[in-house]
Amino acid sequence: MVPPAALPLVAVLNGPNLNMLGLRQPQIYGSATLDDVEALCAETAERLGLAIDFRQTNGEGELVSWVQECRDRAAGIVINPAAYTHTSVALMDALLAAELPVIEVHLSNIHKREAFRHVSYVSKMATGVICGFGIRGYALALTAMADLIEEEDG
Ligand code: DQA
Fold first, then answer.
1. Which of 101, 103, 106, 132 is most exposed, with the fewest beta carbons within 10 Å of its own?
2. What global pTM score does this model have?
């Protein structure tokens, strides 16, 4: 018997302070927790025929290492780099080296906020950016990623 083909794996990576979702500035980030985000991603991925590896870290180096791991094991990266969006050349370089489709997600509309949040190193290399839709942005990103992967494999 031919074994079923493995589902394409999408890494869903979350940066610093996103473990505080639900408690942290709910007027900006909403009341959903990171567990709620993970549940939404899992449901969405199942519907789309994707596997996900959902992670959060407060460390820049750890985030860079996880991106490096993706090169040989993932079909795409959905990333909310949180504050490292605006500061990390190291993260941008790691994403470039991964040579995978990358979708950047932010819960808030970073362009409506302080000027320092209008700069994104990640946007300089991302395939696309979704911001301002709260946690729904993750479902939108996974939907777009499924299309990108299908187009590539097509
Ligand atoms: C964020 C926006 C960033 O500016 C901020 O540092 C975050 C969260 C968002 O999801 O809206 O931590 O990435």
1. 132
2. 0.96
